[in-house]
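Support request from a user on the community tier.

User writes: "When I paste my structure tokens into the form, the page sometimes reloads and wipes my input. The last time it worked, I copied everything first. Here is what I submitted, just in case something in the input itself triggers the reload:"
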């Protein structure tokens, strides 16, 4: 039996990644005593939750019978199960100093961590392209990467404006 990894899989991965990102920031918001930091984490969580909803709507708009240009071997479990691939993205965040927000970070530090997490997501999605040969899946990844880049730009702009007022 062959498994297909197509645009639906890509969107399912993105939806899962954004859900986990939203959950990360909501949990972080509860750790902060400073209401400004807590609110920033809630805003970041809402941002990711909105993306998750967009991915869900995209999944519903894509025809269910997309042509499979590449099939994977039955033994290639990772590339044939989008949820497993989405878990791999989380590995990038489970080490290093942005693995968890402690509740002692400043708003500048939170923004810098959010930027690093978005950069990691871009690297993940670029790597994911190697597993997808469906043109619609590659287009979806390009769209997701561009969205992440625009988020980074917005986060950098907010960080710069905060630093200039300090």
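"...and here is what came back when it finally went through:"
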């Amino acid at each position: 039996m062959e498994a297909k990894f197509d645009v639906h899989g890509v969107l399912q991965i993105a939806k899962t990644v954004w859900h986990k990102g939203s959950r990360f920031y909501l949990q972080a918001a509860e750790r902060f005593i400073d209401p400004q930091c807590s609110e920033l984490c809630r805003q970041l969580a809402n941002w990711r939750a909105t993306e998750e909803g967009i991915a869900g709507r995209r999944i519903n708009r894509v025809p269910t019978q997309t042509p499979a240009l590449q099939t994977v071997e039955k033994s290639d479990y990772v590339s044939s199960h989008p949820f497993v691939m989405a878990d791999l993205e989380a590995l990038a965040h489970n080490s290093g100093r942005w693995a968890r927000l402690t509740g002692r970070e400043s708003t500048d530090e939170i923004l810098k961590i959010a930027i690093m997490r978005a950069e990691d997501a871009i690297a993940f999605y670029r790597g994911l392209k190697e597993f997808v040969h469906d043109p619609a899946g590659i287009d979806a990844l390009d769209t997701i990467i561009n969205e992440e880049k625009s988020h980074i730009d917005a986060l950098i702009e907010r960080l710069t404006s905060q630093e200039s007022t300090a």
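Agent notes: The reload is a front-end session timeout and is unrelated to the input. The longest strand covers residues 3-4. The chain has one domain: 12-62+79-165. Escalated to web team.
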